[in-house]
Amino acid sequence: MSRAEAESSTTEGEEEGHAHRWRILALCLLAGFMTLLDVSIVNVALPSIQQGLEAPHAALSWVVSGYALTFGLVLVPMGKLGDVHGRGRMFLIALAAFTATSALAGMAVNPLWLVIARLLQGAAGGMLNPQVIGLIQQQFHGRERGTAFGMFGAVVGISTAVGPLLGGLIIELAGAQHGWRWVFFVNLPLGLIALVVAARVMPRSTGSRELRGADVPGVLLLGTGVVCLLLPLVDREGFGEWSWLLWSAALILLLLFVLWEHRYTRRGGSPLIDLRLFRISSFTFGSSLGMLYFAGFTGIFFVLAVYFQRGLEYSALQAGLALTPFAVGSALSAALSGRVVHKLGRRVVLLGLSGALLGLLATELLLARDPGRAAGLVTALPLLVAGVGSGMVISPNQTVTLSQVEVSRGGTAAGVQQTGQRIGTAVGTATASGLFFAQLPGDYDSAISHGLVASVSFVGAALLVGVVELVLGRRR
Q1: For 54-87, what is each residue's pLDDT tens digit?
Q2: Count of CB atoms situated within 10 Å of the CB of 474
Q3: Whole-number Å distance between alpha carbons of 92 and 84
Q4: For residue 27, what pLDDT band results from cuts at 50, 70 and 90?
Q5: What distance in Å separates the CA atoms of residue 44 and residue 48, rounded to the nearest whole number?
Q6: CA distance 73 to 224
């Protein structure tokens, strides 16, 4: 099939779902909320899991890290499958799998069952997320695309920040013994309703035949490379002394992956990742900026949650409430910034990064002054400012980063971008928590100060990348 015919078939798929695009967006937002919520909501459920299943610490670690590992592992291959076989079809399959694995996790009778269920749930979440981004890019154009990505950015901020609050509330209502089960069961009614609606409104396009072809060596090289990179980050205790060996293997495997993709493309094959994507400066800079920002953005929730609960003896619900200003600020600004990003471009992102950096710096300085149990109130305003800034980063950056990518390759591009975000999340959380726990047992005020410095540094690095892109763009 010729390139023109491939683009024609993609356009037909777009038109088929165009009339239902806002319903499709609602389903995408719900799916994104479910998968990202399960990253953070489980953290506050760990004591309940330990009590209910008598789970050892190693199993608890894998309940959290296993989800992140398999989520990041499948993003790129599943994005490519969506591009090839149709994103609507892949969305339905992935949503059904995520709903089923959520039920499997909630029904666990022992720690091993729960760990396996979380690994499968993470894979289903990683299968679903590239379809969400690809569908938004496919169904919306111009100003509407910015608005749609703005709403998705609000969901990212809310799901990440509200997870501890919702988890704490569920466990308080359901009880410590079995409350953790409802952290997973909450996905069942949402998933089933979404499946019924999605079966009626999702586009029936068959994807791009031009991209078909099984790049098995590429999948294996990228997959093993990502596993070697993430394992020491998501399970530091289990792989501590092997970390450098695994990271060296990751570097070699990822280099071999790049060389293979070049060769496979020259031979006329359909590579897992079209490396020409990185010739698009907006995609390259945006993906790098997003990876660094997620390293700073997600690290703060882990260290603040531990600080509030262990250092200040807040309940899980109180800790969640203390983080709520960030979620509120992020939700409001994400929805608004999505409407202006088509005019201002990456400048919106730079403004947001500046606000996030200012808010995090103020939070760090205030907590360093030992506010005691009033810390939740003292940090409310700076966390609100940081949240407003964050909302101006995530969705506008997504819009600008994918703005020059062909719609037919949107799922693959989204998978690449989100893999970078997952790597950033793992690196940021490992760095912030490492600096935090290095000060313990001892002074929690010193610990939180060190942990937040890591987040501030990553956000500052993201701002620097954005400034470099702006300067180079003006020169060109």
Answers
A1: 888 778 878 877 888 888 888 888 888 888 888 8
A2: 7
A3: 15
A4: very high
A5: 8
A6: 9
